[in-house]
Every structure is written in structure tokens, then in C-alpha cells.
Amino acid sequence: MTTSTSSSRRILVVMSSAQQLALQGHKTHNTGYFLNELGVPAKRLTDAGYELVIATPRGNVPAMDQSSDHAMFFKNKEEHEEIKAFVGDLLRHASIQTTGAVAEQGTGDYAALFLPGGHAPMTDLMVDPGLGDILRQFHAAAKPTALICHAPTALLAAQADPVAFQKGMEAGEQPSAQDFTYQGYRVTVYANDEEEATEKTFEAPMLYYPADALAQGGAEVQNGEAMKPNVVRDRELLTGQNPFSDEPFVGELLDMLGGARA
Question: Is residue 74 part of a domain?
């Protein structure tokens, strides 16, 4: 069991700069972060006394996936409104850094790394060199690294040539991930049956599914029932399968951090 021993009260939140997901036939789908996957963990972490530092590849304010702005992803309408207001305030006052700058500065002052989902991480974060460096630093320090829903695909940035790997997946090939930091790690990610249902609302099929990409990269994907909470913890790595995993996901992260702080 891996528990953070850092006395830091800062958590690095890495989010995508992307607003569109490429689909088959040169079509695209508007995307961004999923509201509850960011907001529910972020509020629990803030309430526990942690400071959140946000970084994106371009240093821009991340966009919300509009399909996530719905009470169905929350306990009730009141929580939806509360979390939406919290996230709006968080991003409005954040001094957003680039992932490259964070990697260069070093991550020693952070207690944990957190990546929310939405399809956006499959575009830029999966190939972002800054995030690749950040992941390797957290891995070397054995510090909690937590990703939910589609965000676990961003783990694939921590390999020798993530761009070639992503292009191979997009082309329908079976690329190999050389020097993948999380080779053999147990993970969960948005499952194929969940994705098949989701992409029915898209203009065209996706180029590849996140679970297939992680399995191809060498991770051991352990998915549960569709649209039911599922969290997998392996060493310093914590992953959640879908939007409905948000509460157990952040509860496990707080446990890895040593429990909630006043």
C-alpha cells in the first residue's frame, strides 16, 4: 500500500488544453473536462485543506464538456449547482501554468497529482512531453497519481515515443509502447461498452477506445460493470473507471494522502 509521506498541502491538477476530439472520417466532437470528475474530487480535496495548482499544456483555461453539465452526474440538483459554482470560482481565480514549466520547476513540492476526465486527455495529454516528465517524477517519488474516466489514457505520455504510439492507435495498428512507466500496472478506465454507448451520440465513431490504448501500451486493464463505481489502486497509481466513480475515487485518494486534513 502506497501512502504519501509528503508534508505538502499542494496538489497538482493537470487538465487538457483541447476542446475537440478527432473522430473517424475527419469529423470532430466538442469535448473538455467532465464537471463532476473535476469538481467533486477538487472540492473534497480543498475542504480537506489542500491547495490545488492547475496546469495545462498551453497554460490556457480548460473548457468544460457541456454534456457533463447535468444533475444526473451528481447526488441531486443542489450538489450539481454547488459543484458548478465551485469549479467556476476555482478556474476564475487560478493562475494556470503550463505542464512544461511545472516539469522544469520540479514536482517535489506537491503531495499528489490529479487528472480529471472527459475525452480531452486523449488528444493532447496523451502525447504531452511536459506531462510525461511530470508522471515520471511522481512515479520516481512514489507519490499518489490519480486519474479518472478517460484521463488514465494520459499515462501513455510516459513512454519513449507517445506521438508514434497515438498515431498507431489512430491508424488502427497495434503499436508498442517502449519504456512505458506504468507497464504492468493495474488500471481502470472508461470501458469499451461504456464508450460504445457514448459514441452513439457522436457524429462519427471514435478512432480508438481508451481501454484498448492502455491495454496495448502494456497496462493491465481491470474494468467493472458499466456506469457503476469502480476504483483500482496499484502502488502509487489510482484510477477510476467512469463519472460515477468520483466519490470512492477521491475517498481513496485522501486515504493515500493520509486522510482528510482539517
Answer: yes
Residue at 189 is within a domain: yes
Count the neighbouring beta carbons within 10 Å of the beta carbon of residue 262: 5
Q: Characterise 147 by phi-psi region: left (phi > 0), alpha (psi -120 to 50), beta (else).
A: beta
Identify the pLDDT of residue 172.
Answer: 97
| pLDDT confidence of residue 8 | 83
Whichever domain contains 238, its CATH number is: 3.40.50.880
Could you list the beta-strand ranges (E) of 8-67.
Answer: 10-14, 20-22, 28-30, 51-56
Cβ of 124: how many Cβ atoms within 10 Å? 19
List b or e across 175-211, with b for residues whose CB sees 16 or more CB atoms inside 10 angstroms. Answer: bebeebbbeebebbbbbbebbeebbeebeeebbbbbb
Q: Are 191 and 231 in contact (CB under 8 A)?
A: no
What's the domain range around 75? 10-256
How many angstroms separate the CA atoms of 40 and 45, rounded?
9
- pLDDT tens by residue, 214-254: 999 999 999 999 999 999 999 999 999 999 999 999 999 99
Task: Quote the CA–CA distance of 96 and 98 in Å, as a whole number.
Answer: 7
Question: What number is the average pLDDT over the span 127-156?
Answer: 99
**Rounded to two decimals, what is the model's pTM?**
0.95
Which triple of cell numbers denotes residue 192? 469499451
